[in-house]
Amino acid sequence: MSATIIESLLEKTNDFSLEETLVFLSERYPNQVVFSTSFGQEDQVITDFIAKSNTDITVFTLDTGRLFQETYDVFHKTLKKYKRPIEVYFPEAAAVENLLKEKGPNSFYDSVENRKECCFIRKVVPLRKALSGNAVWITGLRAEQSENRHDLNLFEYDANFEIIKFNPLLKWSLEEVELYLQENNVPQNALHKQGFVSIGCAPCTRAIFPGEDIRAGRWWWESSHKECGLHGAKKE
């Protein structure tokens, strides 16, 4: 069933522009299309497209409680520029309290398992709440961001969250993203000019060095696949 839906969406939107696809989705799934933003460069491009599309697409973000001040700054600038609400989802307070009580504030540095536990509490659980009851989840994933994302499709079914995923910038290059932001005067995170490409929680993100992989600055102390569980998360 899900495969048939994906094939249908790919066929119907084959000749659509990004903005036309957003309009199509909002009309096909009224009030059931959501976009998750972390205020990174890709997400800011999509936010700009959504604002221009004048659709009922809901924009939301996950506040993990460990974000950079610069991320909050671009959050605020984005609200002022587009004058559209951005829903905010937080982790469950009790879960965070128990984690810090049992393992302290920096347990994620100790092991991959601990880091994934923190990501699960602060990101995956709130995301599951944000996606519940919706039909389409728009993401800012790009194929060149990591090896894990090379084989993604424009539309795909995420069985873990039981939702259709739309990756509109999948084939965009970083250069195309940066050019769009500049030409359209879109608010950006000040950390991008300091070598930060992929920006997550402050304790888990560093600037990358010339020649390093785009995701090298995320969980830099690990040799894992550099994912937090939002994309490809297992049910628990």
What does this structure look like?
This protein has 236 residues and is of the alpha/beta class. The protein has a single domain (1-193), classed as HUPs (Rossmann fold, 3-Layer(aba) Sandwich). Helices cover 38% and strands 10% of the residues. The chain contains 7 helices and 6 strands. It has helices at 2-12, 18-28, 41-53, 69-82, 93-103, 112-131, 174-183, and strands at residues 33-36, 58-62, 87-89, 136-138, 155-158, 163-166. The protein has a 6-stranded mixed β-sheet with strand order 3-2-1-4-6-5. Helix 2 crosses helix 3 (41-53) and helix 3 crosses helix 7 (174-183). The radius of gyration is 17 Å and the shape is globular. The relative contact order is 0.17.
Strands of the biggest beta sheet: in what spatial order? 3-2-1-4-6-5
Strand content: 5-15%
* Poorly predicted tracts of residues: none
So what's the overall shape? globular
How many DSSP helices?
7
Q: What is the name of the CATH architecture? A: 3-Layer(aba) Sandwich
Average pLDDT, all residues:
92
What is the N-to-C order of secondary-structure elements (H for helix, E for strand)? Answer: HHEHEHEHHEEEH
Q: If you consult CATH, what is the topology?
A: Rossmann fold
- Counting helices, strands and paired strands, the structural category is alpha/beta
Structural domain tally: 1
Domain Phosphoadenosine phosphosulphate reductase: 32-207
Keywords: Cytoplasm, Iron, Iron-sulfur, Metal-binding, Oxidoreductase
EC number: 1.8.4.10
GO molecular function, one term: 4 iron, 4 sulfur cluster binding
